[in-house]
Amino acid sequence: MVEDKVAVVTGGSRGMGREICRDLARRGFRVVVASRKAPACEELAEELVAEFGVEAIGVGAHVGHWADCDALIDRTLDTWGRIDVLVNNAGMSPLYGGLGAVGEDLFDKVIGVNLKGPFRLAVRAGEAMQRGDGGQIVNISSIAAVAPAPTELPYATAKAGLNALTLGLARAFGPTVRVNCVMPGMFRTDISKAWGEEMFAQASRVPAGRIGEASEIVGAVRYLTSEDSTYTTGAVLKVDGGATWAPA
Q1: Sequence-ordered list of residues with C-beta below 8 angstroms from that of 85, at least 6 positions apart, any chain
Q2: I want to staple 158 with a disulfide (CB 3.0 to 4.6 A). Which of 34, 82, 105, 115 is the partner?
Q3: Which part of the chain is the Ketoreductase domain (predicted)?
Q4: Does the annotation mark 229 as catalytic?
């Protein structure tokens, strides 16, 4: 168990973010659940308090907007005076008809949520961690960063940038702040509801033979935010059932 430590999780109200929040609360962290929809965050925060006996708050924040990023960090520091863990989990990958159909608004929105926001949050949180007792930042990327498909190029580009950002931040904030990245493959979340039969067919061909469940990302984040990983920073950990290097 940890005492008085504070964790912030973006995209925290559902899917992988929800499972990460639950595991952090189970471990004794005070948890800040953040996503665009404040009521969903507040609802989960109440559940964490009731189930695990920890302190938790829900905060509405659109991480594609720097003002919201700053407000999220400021709210956390004003409430508890510290940040020990930041999990940059919020992400989006809108569907589009073809590359020529990708407009500037869509491109900017995808880059904003998947890369610009995590940059700002990590910088603000990392600076706060350096002023305190140190901490851990975990970026949630995607195997699209290393195996991009034509149907998700803006998203893949942003996640590739997030991988690079991870290493740069590890160098900038070491040695007291560790910065690492988890690179998931296909997971069953709200995003997967939009997948067609072809995507699920691809999942059956990976070495693990299936897509991942949201709870299966938790172990990687737990490792990177625990004392078991004190010599791990600047790492990108692939959790994809073997999909990235599997034959087509």
Answers
A1: 5, 6, 7, 8, 24, 29, 135, 136, 137, 138, 225
A2: 115
A3: 5-190
A4: no
